[in-house]
Structure prediction request, 233 residues.
Amino acid sequence: MKTEIKTAYAYLRVSSQSQIDGDGFRRQEEEIRAYAKRNGIEITGVFKEEGISGTKGEEDRPAFQEMMHKILANGVDAVIVEGVDRLARTLQIQEQLIAFMTSKEVNLISARTEANITEDFQADPMKKALVQIQGVFSELEKSLLVKKLSAARKAKRAESENDKCEGRKGLDETDEGRELLQVIKKHRRKPRKAKRLTYAQVAENLNAEGIKTLSGTAWTPRYLQKICLKYGV
Prediction:
């Protein structure tokens, strides 16, 4: 039985600055909205992954993390991408992300092929097994994500203020800023034989230790990513 989709988020991704400045986002959003209109689906939010390679996993995608935080809390039916290559370029990462979303009962739709990728994924017995393995941890993770949502919203409101205050002078131009960059670098360092922490996990750890931005506000995954990319942390 085909799943009825009434509401959805649009997920866009480009991997280079030229695509950000060009029509990459516009083209993707237009195709997604055209598909949604044909099928009576309301697009309730648009999430843009800027400058993120298609080979990167969930832990390096702040917009994807934010989208999943919200979708688990508000019950939006699906995520629509222009095509599966906009989700990820490699088969391994595609399957990881699809299994992750499927385990949380989130439908993934390709506007280009009009296929429900989640349903197709579940139809394959081996891929379905991956979903079941992830599903063991789904309920616990969902509860933790929803609990963090309220704090994340407050922190996001402070993000624009961070950009104004800390953007006037580079962090690498002051002693306090350089010290903060070293702290971030320490938290971002990948332990031997361990998976590198996501931006969300690093931001959570910094906040838990009482380490604030130079503006005195809490860290958010997206703002932390901007700092890491800008200063090569």
